[in-house]
Each structure stands twice: as structure tokens, then as C-alpha cells.
Amino acid sequence: MPFLGQDWRSPGQSWVKTEEGWKKTTTDDRNNNVSVESFCKAEQEECFNKENLLLSLSYDMAAKKRKKDLMNNNTKVPYFHREKWIYVHKGSTKERHGYCTLGEAFNRLDFCSAIKDTRRFNYIVRLLELIATSQLPSLSGVAQKNYMNILERVVQKVLVDQQNVRPIKELLQALYVSLCGLVQDMGKSVLVGNINIWVHRMENILQWQQQLDSIQINRPTSTGMTLTDLPASLQLNIMQRLSDGRDLVSLGQVCPDLGALSEDRLLWKRLCQYHFTDRQIRKRLIVSDKGHLEWKKMYFKLSRCYPHREQYSDTLHFCTHCHILFWKDTNHPCTANNPESCTMSLSPQDFINLFNF
């Protein structure tokens, strides 16, 4: 393709388009031999090429602007990945280059549909809480934005369903406290983005907390049998299914009969033995004046000293053979003869530790 303009490396010559084709001429030749019509055609061709160049640049800028607006916080339709499994590689090989980070796994895994699944909801909430307290600065800008979008969906689900209010309140409180400390260190590149963006996100957190505080659980309109209509043995059996002592206390405040059942010593004993080891229980013994163990007081004292036992209906799994991270009910392309033997269940803390390398 010939030059349409002068080049600093050329000896004063330029290409001119004539009726016979492109010709290489000097300045003197152009003044003497090239007609005005040839110059007009060359100028038109040059202007046409410049217009095409500007038009292509405007198209590229428009495409970049649309992509930027899509990933902006103000977008109403955030983009979410919906991959059922991902490959977790911790180093570069001939087949794969780079490694998988916590932010990449958080972006690519299908957490949006997991929120709608009651079996995975508590698992997601606990994972969000752990990321808020310790791993938020390690996420990329896209992952942090995705984190806030998923958190918004969690809050909206709780407001609609009127369930799991307390865990979400604790999650928002932990996130707000963590952001208060991180925003003060914005000059140290702790968080990605402008400080005004994070101040706006903190305002959203406060607004969500106010919405959760003002929530009023509607009484069911059904006139069928309720919990208080059941025999005391069945009521006690239902209470034994609760794994949080605070739920037992709240249930005991419904009526005097349930309050009496919620003080059952055997109920609190089983709750202590479920969450804590025998060694931990022996270190925090509380004996009443009558010589009996105060299992209820011991439970709350142990809760302040040791973490509770975590149990989830569905969790993420990791295949040690093919290094694939997937949900429990999702089939992954494992090449092992016995895939179940090389599969391990991951708690939320194990999921985060998987990327600490």
C-alpha cells in the first residue's frame, strides 16, 4: 500500500493517484506534470481514508464505553458467570499459563443460582462473611464489584422471604466494620477504586441494615395446626433439630409452654456436645448451687471462646485428581477410575485456604 502523505524518511517524493494509477513524483514534477484533477482525487482519497480511520476509532471508543458502563456500579444488569465447575491451577504448565485466584473463582462460579437454593444459602452467607473480614483486599476490582452485587441479591432475598434475618445482619455488620478500617488506608492501595465508590457502598450497607431492622414478619394466614398445638414430646423433638442456642431462646419467648421446654437441661447438653469437644467443655464447667451443670450458661460461655461446628446441606467440593472445584450435585469431567475417592468437601474456610499459596 503506497503512502498517502509525506514520510520523514523519504527524499521529498510522494505517491499521487492518477488516471493511469499510482505514480511516484517529486515536488517539481507535481508542479509541472500533475494536473489539478489528480490532486483533487488524491485529496479526496486521503480525506476518505481519514474519515474511515476516525469512524473506526469512534466505533472502538463506543464499544469500550459500553463495556465500561456494563461493569460500572450504576448498571442495572450486572454480569454474572454461571459456571458449574472451574479448574484450579496453582502454577504455570505447558498446557496452562497462570494460576487461579480467589477472586477469579468467586467470579466464575455460579453463586447467583446458589443463593436461590436453600441448601447452599447458609454456605454462601458464611463465605461472604469470611471474605468480608479477611479477604476483601485480595480480590480484584471486578471481584469486589461482583461481591457487592451478590450481597445485594442476598439482602433482597431475605427481605422477600423474611427468613435468615440474623445471619445477614451479622454479615452486614462485619462487612461495615471491615470497610471502616480499610477505607482509612485507601492511600495504601488496600481497596480497588475511588474512595467515593466505597463510601457509597457503605451507605448502601447502612440502608440495608435499616431495612432489615424494620422488617416485620407476617403471621401466616393458615388456620391449620401450629407448633403450640403439638404434644410436648414432638415440640421437644423439633427443638432438638435447632443448632443455634439463640434460636432456642427466641422460640422460648413465644409462649410459656415453649419457654418451659426451652429450659430443658438435656436439650442444652446435646447442643454443647454437638458444637464443642469434651476438652473444651471441661475447661468451662459451671456448677449450680444444687450441684448440677448449668448447660445453658456453659453453651453461651463456650460460644464466646470457641467457634461453632459448621454443618451445611450442600457445599463446594474439590477433586484432588483433576483439580476441579465444583458443587456437590454437579458432575465434573473427572478422569479418575473412582471419582468419589478423590473428592473432598470444602467448608467456607477450606475454600479460602485453597487459594492461599
TrEMBL record:
Pathway: Protein modification; protein ubiquitination. Residues 1-29 are annotated as: Disordered. The keyword Cytoplasm applies. Residues 224-271 form the F-box domain. Residues 17-29 have a biased composition (Basic and acidic residues). Gene3D superfamilies: 1.20.1280.50. The keyword Transferase does not apply. It comes from the Eukaryota. It holds the Pfam family F-box-like. It is found in: Cytoplasm; Nucleus. Part of the SCF (SKP1-CUL1-F-box) E3 ubiquitin-protein ligase complex SCF(FBXO32) formed of CUL1, SKP1, RBX1 and FBXO32. Substrate recognition component of a SCF (SKP1-CUL1-F-box protein) E3 ubiquitin-protein ligase complex which mediates the ubiquitination and subsequent proteasomal degradation of target proteins. Probably recognizes and binds to phosphorylated target proteins during skeletal muscle atrophy. Recognizes TERF1. This is F-box only protein 32. It comes from Seriola lalandi dorsalis.
